[in-house]
Design a protein that fits this description.
The complex is a heterodimer of chains A (about 250) and B (about 200). Chain A is of the alpha/beta class and about 250 residues long. Chain A has one domain: Aldolase class I (TIM Barrel, Alpha-Beta Barrel). In chain A, about 35% of the residues lie in helices and about 25% in strands. Chain A has ten helices and twelve strands. Chain A has an eight-stranded parallel barrel with strand order 1-4-5-6-7-10-11-12, surrounded by seven helices. In chain A, helix 8 (about 210-220) crosses helix 10 (about 240-245). In chain A, about 55% of the residues are buried. Chain B has about 200 residues and is α/β, with parallel strands linked by helices. Chain B has one domain (about 1-195): Rossmann fold (3-Layer(aba) Sandwich), CATH 3.40.50. Chain B contains five helices and twelve strands. In chain B, the strands form two sheets. Chain B has a nine-stranded mixed β-sheet with strand order 2-1-3-4-12-11-10-7-8, with helices on both faces. Chain B is globular and about 45 Å long. The chains are: A alpha/beta (about 250), B alpha/beta (about 200). The interface of A and B includes residues 1, 41, 94 and 99 of A.
């Protein structure tokens, strides 16, 4: 049996609440993180991602208490990101109950840090998040950080390769162009990255329909599909997505 | 019930402690040999690397307690420490089962991160109530290479390897039951029944 393709609801958390925006802005409230994560777990979510989206901008530490609360209610893997820079930040998040930690700015500003953190904690708990946006001249994709506010003159596919080579255990690739739009995942971007690296790729940004999940897990070859708004507002449930994928011949955990 | 979780000094023991607490088990972190003989069960958790973990392990005490019948549980790396050695690094395992931990073959993505199935080989108290095929969560680069009637379930990923090994009071899983949803909870409960 091959590994199951994973369906991962994402909680973007600001000031203790789950929020949802479009193209990284225009945030509105989407619920309580503890309740939502429990609901998703019961619906068959394979993992939960929790991103403290104010952490980098406001230079705050991830809310350890809230992470602990969510972690206590989960018996599935739990990834936490937002504002994690140093080995001690990472350790604090792991001690609060996270299984994996997602880093973005910290990796971009000092790529060697990926290697350092992987050496201490193991690659399996280091997820490198890559926020990518199509280059305005239409050539390739560029990497951004700070919730899309900072542009790095770095090609997204090259960066993905480098992060993998430095010891990232997984990549969480978000298309800023598609974030919250429900226009479907950015298949071109995700396919290129998934075929360039030997580590699992989690696709993010744009999920809008059942077929979007099918496309990103088959055509683009990603290992996991992450979605937020479509689950938060109840348009689709994790269960529906998995039933659809199974009916289409994709291996998922029932 | 009070379980000793062997602390190798790295990684996240929160999930495991939380999962055990959910089942009504109290836990404490054991460094070195202190407190081991008073514990109702010993747990070797699944975090960190083989060398670092093997280095700090109180081999003698663990071996004696396990052989004297104390319930002993190994998860992921903890299960690999039941074997003699590992390709991952230097250091000596407990040698409770023959064999060594080997690296997953290069044809598959390593580490294996995600949900895979286990296939039952033997019906024992540890596998009670499980369907022939259950989904469990894996995070590992090495697998236990051991053969014998202690192999209770296997998983296929590049190679077919033991997913659960168990004999009398000693049981190990290569996957993380505390992260494996309903199937994991069932296996944990089976293991706890042995310790009661």
């Amino acid at each position: 049996m091959p590994l199951a393709k994973r369906i991962i609801p994402c909680l973007d958390v600001k000031d203790g609440r789950v929020v949802q925006g479009v193209r990284f802005s225009g945030l509105r409230d989407a619920g309580d993180p503890v309740e939502l994560s429990k609901r998703y777990r019961d619906e068959g979510a394979d993992e939960i991602v929790f991103l403290d989206i104010t952490a980098t901008n406001a230079k705050r530490k991830t809310l350890a208490g809230l992470v602990r609360k969510v972690a206590s209610s989960l018996d599935i893997p739990f990834t936490v990101g937002g504002g994690i820079r140093t080995a001690s930040d990472l350790r604090a998040v792991l001690l609060s109950g996270a299984d994996k930690v997602s880093i973005n700015t910290a990796a971009l500003s000092a790529p060697g840090r990926i290697r350092d953190l992987a050496d201490i904690y193991g690659s399996q708990c280091i997820v490198v998040a890559i926020d990518a946006k199509r280059n305005l001249e239409g050539r390739g994709y560029e990497v951004y950080s700070h919730a899309g506010g900072k542009r790095w003159e770095r090609d997204a596919v090259e960066w993905a390769r480098k992060a993998a080579a430095l010891g990232a255990g997984e990549l969480l690739v978000t298309s800023i162009d598609r974030d919250g739009t429900r226009l479907g995942y950015d298949i071109d971007l995700l396919k290129e990255i998934a075929s360039s690296v030997g580590i699992p790729v989690i696709a993010s940004g744009g999920a809008g329909s059942l077929e979007d999940f099918f496309d990103v897990l088959t055509v683009a070859g990603c290992d996991a599909a992450l979605a937020a708004s479509i689950f938060h507002y109840g348009e689709l449930s994790v269960r529906q997505v998995k039933e659809h994928l199974a009916a289409r011949g994709v291996v998922v955990r029932p | 019930m009070r379980f000793a979780i062997i602390d190798y000094g790295v990684g996240n023991l929160f999930s495991l402690r939380t999962a055990l607490q959910r089942e009504g088990v109290e836990t404490f972190l054991a460094k070195g040999k202190r407190g081991l003989s008073d514990a109702d069960a010993l747990v070797l958790p699944g975090v960190g690397g083989f060398h670092a973990a093997a280095k700090g392990l109180p081999h003698e005490e663990l071996r004696e307690l396990a052989k004297s019948g104390k319930p002993t549980i190994g998860i992921c790396l903890g299960m690999q420490l039941f074997l003699e050695r590992s390709e991952e690094g230097l250091g000596e395992g407990l040698g409770l089962f023959p064999g060594a931990a080997k690296r997953l073959p290069p044809e598959v993505k390593v580490p294996q991160i995600g949900w895979n199935t286990i296939r039952l080989k033997r019906e024992t108290e540890f596998t009670q109530g499980l369907p022939r095929e259950s989904w469990v969560y894996y995070v590992h680069s090495y697998y236990p290479d051991t053969k014998g009637d202690w192999v209770l379930a296997t998983t296929r990923y590049g190679a077919e390897f033991p997913a659960i090994i168990g004999q009398k009071n000693i049981v190990g899983t290569q996957f993380h039951p505390e992260k494996s949803g309903p199937a994991g909870a069932q296996i944990l409960r089976n293991i706890l029944r042995m310790a009661r």
